[in-house]
Design a protein that fits this description.
heterodimer; A: 481 residues; alpha+beta; Barwin-like endoglucanases; 3 domains; six-stranded mixed beta barrel; 19% strand; B: 224 residues; alpha/beta; six-stranded mixed β-sheet; four-stranded antiparallel β-sheet; 7 helices; 10 strands; 33% helix
Chain lengths: 481, 224
Amino acid sequence: MFLRMITASLLRRRSRMLVALLSIGIGATILSGLVTIYYDVPRQMGAQFRNYGANMILLPSGGEKLTTGEAQEALGAIPADQLVGATPYRYVTAQMTRSQLSFMAAGTDFTQVQATSPYFMVEGAYPSGSREVLLGEEVAQTIGAKLGSVVEISYKPDAASADAATPITPGAALAGSAEGFNTNLVYVTLTLDDEMKIASLTVNADTQTPEYGGRAAEETYTRQFIGKSLPVRLGEDVDALSGATITSDAVVQAVNSARPTANAAAASGNTLSLRVVGILDTGGKEESYIFLSMSDMAALTGAEDELDVMELSVSASGAELEGYVSEIAEKHSGITPRLVKRVTRSEGAVLSKLQALVFLVTAVVLLLTMICVSTTMMAVVTERRKEIGLRKALGASDSSIRAEFLGEGLMLGGLGGALGAALGFVFAQVVSVHVFESSITFQPLLLPVTILVSMIVAAVSCLLPIKHAVAIDPALVLKGE
Amino acid sequence: MSLLELKNISKIYGELKALDNVSLHVDQGEWVAIMGPSGSGKSTMMNIIGCMDKPTKGEVLLDGVDIAKESSKKLTDIRRDKIGLIFQQFHMVNYLTAVENVMVAQYYHSMPDEAEALEALGRVGLRERARHLPSQLSGGEQQRVCVARALINHPELILADEPTGNLDEANENIVLDLFRQLHREGTTLIVVTHDPEVAEAAQRTIVLEHGRVAREIVNENFQA
């Protein structure tokens, strides 16, 4: 009878109940929609953030070289669907045969580069075949190379020591390296002006911890070397990077021990002719590099399968990333994994702000729903004063009046919640497609949760109206109005 | 045997004495009409007898229990168990069918029993209209549903407030016939009315004026 009464009340008084149902339904729609987005945002944004480049790097432990095999094995710790890309880099100082200038040459895998560094702007195309090269824009300008030009580069193992005998003369181009943090090598190339002062300096600190020693490569750090005479003294001529004294020391050592690279081509070493297929514009240090494929790099250096660093782009939360780092560190003693914290931390900050916003909006919507349902139920109680008085006159106790209104409220909440859960998924899908340009996954748990929350909201909204209903005097039905 | 006894009751609202030292005695199985102009205290008396209000002074003994001293929760219980109410405005739950309206009274009293509710509707001649909503019933039919609802729990006292006030003559007669039937079965009836014809159907008429019992008329021509 209880159910029969409340369903009859809901079914036969459609218009009023439709308003209440609609308000709960809309509230539940926003609720389930936003919660869906709330849980999907990390995934959605994660994909967006991956446009900002690698967020994890694998370095060889103790200054040794890393092999591709080892690195690939370590990647096993990361689920395939989270791994956006893994790019190997092998750095050497190579020399342009014609200009005699030294540049940093990086051997890499161009398919992976496009995944881990989507912000690389390439004029022309990425090298796809052998004997093709991608020049940093700065390099291209310095040597006057254009798309389609052929450049000849040479490499001599241990160029610095081989040229120990060559005197350093004004205007010379020098190259050097020194052990930095974790005994990983830091490479420098520099040129001197006519007064034997440093005219330009390029530092490759990709093997150092990105947010500390890695900053040594930035122009803001290297520019303090310009105009200084050799040997440069750390702490006097130039300042150390805060938090990265070992790397700073390595840069100074490398600069001071740098040897002329001129005539390196004349010494025994490999020379490759490469066709320029692309010019790279990044706004960063990569513009002073030369990029070639791993196989060309092996041909140039004669050393197969050696890596200095592997850059990874992983679509995962901060906590998951930490987990992968410790797992790789534990299982592979030859590899030191690190997080690129400036990327992972800013991801975390943006995500938590977005989630807080969604949470706030959800809370406000719930509050509004509550007010709306409460108002509707209040109107219902007023409208049904006579009926409530009649029920009481017929012997209904206060608790049965409470139970009936609460029952109606809960049923409304349940129906509205179910409606809202369904519409909410559609809503979230539409938002997701328009804002994030990807579809979302359905969260099965959300259906019961939305229904439950709607029922609670409806029940809470009914409290005040029920109080009024209980206060109605049964005698009012006797007065012939 | 006395079912209801009002002993010197007064109901005072501020300055106004709605009931002023009224006494009344109703026997088990008796049929009493209460008459009086507007403002004579009929409604107040009805509320007190119907356990929906308490007197300011005096005792109200219903079946030997002084309801003037009970809590309002207890009054609800007494009303449910002992009194069947019939109203001038019919008062049906407008989204429930005739039979469901009867079952509401059963629900608050004990257990809803659809067969019994249908039987009660049969008694008032509405067995065929049991599935209709109040809006599909005439005023007379609605009042008959209310009679069925009032008697469904076999109350000791049926309290009717202007039961024929909104009915035409034909329907008035149907309702009065139902009252006669109930009276023959031994149900105590108290009917508040304006209508002398309705009052004449009762055994005894109490006339209230200005909150006091003005006179009492015994109906010599009463036919059971």
